[in-house]
Write a structure and sequence with these properties.
By secondary structure, the chain is an alpha/beta fold. It has two domains: 124 residues, Rossmann fold (3-Layer(aba) Sandwich), CATH 3.40.50; 182 residues, NAD(P)-binding Rossmann-like Domain (Rossmann fold, 3-Layer(aba) Sandwich). It is built from 13 helices and 13 strands. It has a seven-stranded parallel beta sheet, with helices on both faces. It has a six-stranded mixed beta sheet with strand order 2-1-3-4-5-13. Helix 1 packs parallel to helix 13 and helix 5 packs across helix 7. The two termini are 27 Å apart. The structure holds 2-keto-D-gluconic acid.
């Protein structure tokens, strides 16, 4: 039987064409997704939704879309989805873990290097014609080799980040809800430490945790205050894990030396005080934005929809 599927926006690759062969697909209007007219017009008729992190899936949306059986999030994070509201209506929720691990770790390490070695600042300087000759103390940055990386959340992406750090001759400490298996700790040379100690010991702190009530505001004013002078924060997880106002202050008054941010508290809005700072490198939530990762995310999300609509268990259910 053909079902009706709402796909939040056009997706890369051929996965949506595959879905269209079996079901009727309505594609939303770019970033408006479930807030757009295409969704509003068909809400009561959709059996499945492919959502983005920018689509809030809550009780009131599910009320309007009463036929929906599966919400397949085109992301590994699912903090945009009210899992309890979905469970209450028997709606299956899925995500796309695994396929974006290396891409996200690549960007996180890129932000680490760019913040430490002032790459974006140097680029801006060259472009405005301010490169007026070599000097020993010109644009000197933070050493990466031999420094300590603190990984918050040693899941798939945290581990991929730790592997990159080892390749650059860094020491790795980590903190997180769950302790990694001894063989993972051994392979990565990663030492488990309490969260506050991580902030005190690390030269670089990189966030790889989901946004949950426990991790909201995890990088608080107090924890920023515990960081080493000149330390660097990298965030490719979720903006709301960081108190952005406190971060901006710590970048101006210390102790922070720099930050590399791919995510923001109130996307797509970016805190004005961060925009004014030279020692922040910012990218617009592009952690998973490499071609193969994005095509694999689409394929994974569409496979989940096809499975649930065929009465099968999807490969990546979340929330039970
Ligand atoms: C996505 C992400 O690019 O997977 C996640 O949780 O944050 C990114 O990989 C973004 O969510 C787009 O849906």
């Amino acid at each position: 039987m053909r079902n009706r599927v709402f796909v939040s926006c056009p997706l890369p690759g051929s996965a949506v064409a595959r879905l269209e062969r079996e079901h009727d697909v309505v594609i939303g209007e770019g970033p408006r997704g479930v807030r757009g007219d295409a969704f509003a017009r068909g809400a009561a008729t959709f059996d499945a939704i492919v959502s983005l992190v920018t689509d809030p899936i809550d009780a009131s949306l599910l009320e309007r879309a009463g036929r929906v059986r599966v919400v397949a999030n085109f992301a590994v994070g699912y903090d945009n989805i009210d899992l309890a509201a979905c469970a209450a209506r028997g709606v299956t929720v899925t995500n796309t873990p695994g396929v974006l691990t290396e891409a996200t770790a690549d960007l996180a390490f890129g932000l680490l290097l760019a913040s430490a070695r002032r790459i974006a600042e140097g680029d801006r300087l060259v472009r405005r014609g301010a490169f007026d000759g070599w000097r020993p103390s010109f644009l000197v940055g933070t050493p990466v080799h031999g420094a300590t990386l603190g990984v918050v959340g040693l899941g798939r992406i945290g581990q991929a980040m730790a592997r990159r750090a080892r390749g650059f001759g860094m020491r790795v400490v980590y903190a997180g809800r769950t302790r990694a298996a001894p063989e993972i700790e051994k392979a990565l040379g990663a030492v488990h430490v309490p969260l506050d100690e991580l902030f005190e010991r690390a030269d670089f702190v990189s966030l790889h945790c989901p946004l949950t009530p426990e991790t909201r505001g995890l990088v608080s004013r107090a924890r920023l205050g515990r960081m080493k002078a000149g330390a660097v924060l990298v965030n490719t997880a979720r903006g709301a894990c960081v108190d952005e106002a406190a971060l901006a202050e710590a970048l101006v008054a210390g102790p922070l030396g720099a930050a590399g941010l791919d995510v923001f508290e109130d996307e797509p809005r970016v805190n004005q005080s961060l925009l004014a700072l030279e020692n922040v490198v910012m990218t617009p939530h592009v952690g998973s934005a490499d071609r193969s990762a994005r095509e694999a995310m689409a394929a994974t999300a569409i496979d989940s929809v096809l499975a649930v609509l065929a009465g099968q268990r999807p490969a990546h259910p979340v929330g039970g």
